[in-house]
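Fill-in record for Glyoxylase-like metal-dependent hydrolase (Beta-lactamase superfamily II).
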Amino acid sequence: MDGTPLPEIDQFKLGSYKFTVVRDGINISEKPYETFGTNQDPETVKALLSANFLPADKFLNGYTPALIDTGSDVILIDTGFGASGRVRGAGQLAEGLKAAGYSAEDVTIVALTHLHGDHIGGLMEDGAAAFKNARYIVGQAEYDFWSDKAREGTPAEGGHKAVLANVVPLAEKTTFIKDGDSVAPGITAMLAAGHSPGHMVFHVESEGKGLVLTGDTANHYILSLLRPDWEVRFDMDKTQAAATRRKVFEMIATEKIAFLGYHMPFPAVGFVERQDGGYRFVPKTYQFDI
């Protein structure tokens, strides 16, 4: 009643697994055509947004960590901004977990799709591990790239420093994985590089139900999915990222399974169907409730 907004969470079941999705924060930016469709005429990008009932001059980006309670493990996928984001209203993961009935101490595994700042910022709190009872799972190729001193003096130096501060201190408790490795029973990693050198997606399966946590494979539900070949400013290898988008979402569309995209409209879960040379995002409704 003091006017403080409550943390936004969404919970649903996938087979016997319980998912909790937390909105870590949002960011509103100008000129979407400078981020998405950077190889297109800006008017083409604006027209597609307008045709889909969205503003042509602004876009909202959300950040969505997810918790998977398997009954034997409590697995956190990505961690949001942490303390560094709270000055601008982000970093809400801890409050969201509390609202869902969990604490940081309950988390037994933290698995990271990749090592960009909005995914690793919540790993440390006041100089100590935020999830003190957890072990960590990180893609080997991703870690090798960002932890390498060769990043110094390059555009990737800021990311390198963030990994040194947030990920390297946890290395002794980290399992480094590659394509096809298991994260936990029913959860398998798949290399989906392009957005970053070792970006991973995670397949989850329980009692015949499937869902893919796609991380940053697609970062906008219209501009990245309906036009998967359009370049995105934040993709490090833009050609590879576009090919990966098609590969991952073609698989999801073919198998007719759900996906959870870190930057999709909250609660960031839905399905895709083929449309107009790309994929149409279909948000979840009551599929998981009955």
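KEY FINDING: The chain has a mean pLDDT of 96.
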